[in-house]
Structure formats: structure tokens, C-alpha cells
Design goal:
Elements (H helix, E strand, L loop, with lengths): L2 H24 L3 H18 L10 H19 L3 H19 L9 H17 L1 H33 L5 H6 L33 H8 L7 H8 L3 E3 L3 E2 L1 H5 L5 E3 L3 H7 E3 L5 E4 L8 E3 L5 E3 L2 H4 L1
Antiparallel strand pairs: 1-5, 2-3, 4-5, 6-7
């Protein structure tokens, strides 16, 4: 590949990058973007220091071994493009092994790279490579069939069971607020009372620590906005919970729940009582949805 061709290929990504940073600058959120993505994620790793993958699935272990065999093969048959794959695989392996990998799915990128590293080696072994490829295809068809069967059985077993996000979505207006729960996400279309949309007890804990935004006062927001649906139990620190320590980060005032809310079939999710839910939802002149003010009603 010629240098000029590489420069041409970089033109569009660079233009898009400049446009993106122009957008951030226009809305004065470059600092928030940096905190929310770089600083935030550096601190996110610290929260999982007590949570590590104990044992990887066998397919990840096998493919990782094949990836390293590909690295050995590269040492005797160097190639510029092959070298890029090898470098990416080794870097990803080191990161997953020694830095931040609380769950098995964090290894997926490494698995993809290990397969790409193994392919040039397997191709050289001609008949063995073909046999291996056929074996992989057969296994994928087998596992795919099992997955389809399991999914079909799951749909059949749950088709008549109420589904919380669907229940919430069918019982809101464009003006309503909804508070996601502790480890529960059911607010898909409603407004969010707090700065943090979901994973309250996790994102807000790190967000406050890194200066993105303070943790929300859930009780004050319930009193102010009267969300249509709320989580009627306390919120726990997810990072402490991963390490086996129960730490409450948000105490939900049960007197507020009893005053404004009625239980749903999805305990501990509560729905606003009808006497507090008589607000008319209208669209203002700017096209935004809001509750009609009492003065306008009169």
C-alpha cells in the first residue's frame, strides 16, 4: 500500500472527526465528553477490582491457543498485514489478562483477533486447515441450532407472561417521567428525572467521583416530578456488590412511595396513583411535550 493511498483513506475519517469535535465545541461539552469517556472509564475499572473471570469458556481458551500458534507462525513467516493482526491480538490479550476483564464477554474482541491470527497458519497446513474449517462450520451449525431451539422454547414459555418494559411503555404519555430501578431498565421512551438514565448505583457513583455530575437526590426528584413509574426500594452500589459487599447508595423514602404510588405486578416497581396522575399532556409552541399548567387549564 502506498503512503498516498493511506492518506486518501484517512480523509473521510479525519473530516468526520473534525466535524464531531466541532459539534462538541459548539455546545461547549468537550470537557464533559472527556470526563464521561476517558476519565470515567479509567475509574470504572477500579470498581471491578474484586470481580475477575474465574474460568473462561472452553471455546475462548481453544481459540486463544490457536491465536498464539498464529503468532509463533508469524515469527517465521513475517508479513506486514499479518503483523498488524498479531500486534492487535497481543495487545488485546495483555489488556484482558492483566488489566480489566470482569466478565467473559470482555474477551470477544480478543477471540476475533485470535481467529484472524490463526487463519494464515491453518491455510498453510492445507488439508488440516480445510478439515479444521469444516469442523468449525459443523460446530457452528450445531450450536446455532441449539440456540434457535432454546430461543424458541423461551418465547413459548414467556409469550403470555407480562413484560415490564412493555407494560411501562403502554402506560405513559410523552410528558411522563420514569425512574429506572436498581439493576432494572424499563424506561425506554419516557423522560428521565435524573442526569443518569440507567445503572443508578453504578454510573452515578463513578460519575460523581470523576466530576461528571453529582449523584441524584432520588427522593427530591420523586417529589418534584412525580414520575409515572419508580423503583420503590433502595439502590445498592454495584461495584461493592460485585465484591460481595452490600452498600446502599440511595435510600428511597417509603413515605413518598406510600403517598404517591400504588404497587404493580412487577414489585418493587410502583405506578403513580390516579389522583396524582390527572395532568394533561400537551405540546408547546416549540414542539416539546409538557404537562399543561393549572393556570392554562383555568
Amino acid at each position: 500500500i502506498k503512503t498516498i493511498d493511506m492518506i486518501k483513506a484517512l480523509v473521510f475519517p479525519l473530516v468526520a472527526l473534525i466535524a464531531f469535535f466541532g459539534y462538541l465545541y459548539y455546545y461547549d461539552i468537550i470537557g464533559v465528553y472527556f470526563l464521561s469517556n476517558y476519565t470515567f472509564n479509567l475509574n470504572l475499572a477500579d470498581g471491578f477490582e474484586l470481580s475477575k473471570v474465574v474460568k473462561l469458556p472452553y471455546y475462548i481458551m481453544i481459540l486463544t491457543i490457536l491465536g498464539w500458534l498464529g503468532v509463533v507462525y508469524f515469527c517465521f513467516h513475517p508479513n506486514r498485514y499479518f503483523g498488524v493482526l498479531v500486534a492487535l491480538f497481543v495487545c488485546e490479550f495483555l489488556q484482558r489478562k492483566f488489566y480489566f476483564s470482569p466478565y467473559a464477554y470482555y474477551y470477544w474482541l480478543m477471540v476475533y483477533l485470535s481467529v484472524l491470527c490463526a487463519v494464515p497458519m491453518l491455510v498453510k497446513f492445507n488439508q488440516f486447515g480445510r478439515l479444521f474449517g469444516v469442523t468449525i462450520i459443523v460446530c457452528l451449525c450445531f450450536w446455532g441450532g441449539k440456540s434457535i431451539t432454546a430461543y424458541r422454547d423461551f418465547i413459548k414459555a414467556t409469550e403470555n407472561r407480562p413484560y415490564l418494559p412493555d407494560f411501562v411503555t403502554r402506560n405513559i404519555t410523552p410528558c411522563d417521567y420514569v425512574f429506572n430501578g436498581d439493576g432494572l431498565m424499563y424506561n425506554i421512551f419516557a423522560k428521565d428525572p435524573a442526569y443518569y438514565w440507567q445503572l443508578i448505583g453504578q454510573l452515578d457513583v463513578i460519575g460523581e467521583k470523576t466530576g461528571v455530575h453529582p449523584r441524584p437526590d432520588i427522593n427530591a426528584l420523586i417529589e418534584k416530578y412525580k414520575p409515572k413509574f419508580v423503583f420503590g426500594a433502595n439502590y445498592f452500589n454495584k461495584f461493592a456488590d460485585e465484591g460481595g459487599v452490600k452498600e446502599i447508595v440511595h435510600y428511597v423514602d417509603q413515605s413518598l412511595i406510600e403517598k404517591y404510588y400504588a404497587p404493580t405486578i412487577f414489585y418493587p416497581v410502583y405506578q403513580l396513583k390516579s389522583e396524582f396522575n390527572n395532568r394533561k399532556c400537551v405540546q408547546n409552541l416549540s414542539g416539546q411535550w409538557e404537562y399543561q399548567k393549572e393556570a392554562d387549564v383555568k
